[in-house]
Amino acid sequence: MRFHLTTFGCQMNVNDSQWLVRSLEARGWEESAEEQADLLVVNTCSVRDKPEQKVYSHLGRLRDYWLRNPDLFVAVGGCVAQQVGEAFWNRFPFVRLVFGPDGLAMVPGAVMRLFKEPDLRLSLLDFTERFPERETFLPEFGESPRAFVNITQGCDNFCSYCIVPLTRGRQRSRSSRSILEECRALISRGVLEITLLGQNVNSYGMDCGGTEPSFPELLTSIAALPGLKRLRFTTSHPKDLSDQTVEAFGRLENLCPQLHLPLQSGSNTVLQAMGRKYTMETYLEIVEHLRRVRPDIALSTDLIVGFPGETESDFDQTLDALQRIGFESSYSFMYSDRPGTRAACMHGKIPQEVKALRLQRLQSLQNELSQVHLRAQLGRLAQVLVEGPSKKQCASSADASTGGESMRGRDEAGRMVNFKAGVGFDSGKTLVFVRIVEAKKHSLWGIMEERP
Ligand code: SAH
Ligand code: SF4
Ligand code: F3S
Question: How far is the centre of ligand 3, averaged over its atoms, from the C-alpha of 4 (Å)?
Fold first, then answer.
């Protein structure tokens, strides 16, 4: 029995897919190319219209495999599956399983049943009351030095443009006992870096009526686990980022100097219409506090251009904010109507060409700012967690002549670093020192050095 899985969307979907692969493999399934698969799984994203449309065109393509082999079937999961549900069956008859993010744990069992009963169709679309705990599959020792650990599912914020609370459900925090257990087990398998995952990790525990620790308390316990070299978390909502969490960046040595803090807009009028519940002033106070406790912190953000009613002057305020804060990097998107959200019914929709122009202006400013940050790294001795061989060719002829392997990894702040490892590099070595010698468009280039 062979399967092929395609993933769209955020890190949470990537993590869910990885779990599904491991869980199917544990039941005797083998991952294969699309052409050879008996089961095709698609894990989908609905955050904007474009990723949703991608799912339909992808399924249109999968139809051809089914026409050639009517015994194969398709399972659609994730956020579009939760949103569209059983309506998939009318449009795509070869889809025999639809599952939402909470239904994931039951997918392997459902797939086995569907194989035995060819006339059956199943849907797993109910939201669970508690965090949907699932069997843990640990990597082999030394398989990867990085891992992601879910700490919450869903979101309670209902930002006016966002479909996520409708597709992932309300926020449910995972018990701190399970989180710590998983982190300990990962570290025992050679994991050095853990990233905690959730739509809004800062509100961890707030749905538990005092039975679970607060987010900064949880961070403190995880950071203290022996052997953990690096701790990160994503995503944060500015309105829930407490002073204690900010101060953790100064207090916890292995908490990496990196924070993704979605701003969305630099205009208070737009922020209010988005239902973000903070102002530009409070956001700037957080940034100032973060830089006070951790001057080397790298800040990144998400931005939406062309929200309904956004004027030129609102947009200029976003550009100003970008410049004032000096984000290392940002993800920026054109506003997209999502079914069932408040913003979809708002007046003052912005024409596509205006949105496109604003996006282009914003992204070119961001590229300039990112370059300034990357160039500021020149000459620094960075500590890099090695992820594998680098496909990039070395930049200057100076280091080309030294020979040795090219590797890639990330520095403390999460910047991508490609580096020359020198002849006889010990491939079991995972944390290395690299002298930064060149800034590329989105990454750094360096040369490995011995411990200073
Ligand atoms: N929970 C996270 C991420 C949510 S989705 C957070 O709150 O930061 C990731 C990003 O997609 C959002 O930060 C937002 O910038 C963008 N996004 C969400 N809905 C959107 C929409 N309808 N149109 C355009 N961008 C959207
Ligand atoms: Fe969406 Fe807002 Fe929740 Fe993020 S915090 S997932 S943008 S509703
Ligand atoms: Fe997309 Fe769902 Fe993640 S909508 S961004 S896959 S939470």
Answer: 20
Distances, alpha carbon 39 to alpha carbons 36, 295, 300, in Å: 9, 50, 38
CATH class, 146-375 region: alpha beta
Alpha-carbon span 369 to 14, nearest angstrom: 29
CB 152 within 8 A of CB 131: yes
**Tally of helices (H runs) and strands (E runs) in the chain:** 14, 19
Contacts with 81 (C-beta within 8 Å, 6 or more apart), sequence order: 44, 88, 98, 99, 100, 125
Q: Which of 8, 11, 12, 18 to mutate to test the pocket of ligand 3 (most atoms within 8 A of CB)?
A: 12
Is 419 in contact with 393 (CB distance < 8 Å)?
no
Ligand 2 pocket, 331 CB below 6 A? no
Residue-wise pLDDT tens digits, 11-26: 999 999 999 999 999 9
User: Under 8 Å CB-to-CB from 307, ≥6 apart: which residues?
Assistant: 161, 265, 270, 273, 274, 335, 343, 350
Q: What is the fold, at CATH topology level, of the domain defined by 2-124?
A: Rossmann fold (3.40.50)
What's the confidence (pLDDT) of residue 401? 53
Say what the pTM is: 0.95
Q: Where are the domains of the chain?
A: 2-124, 146-375, 381-449
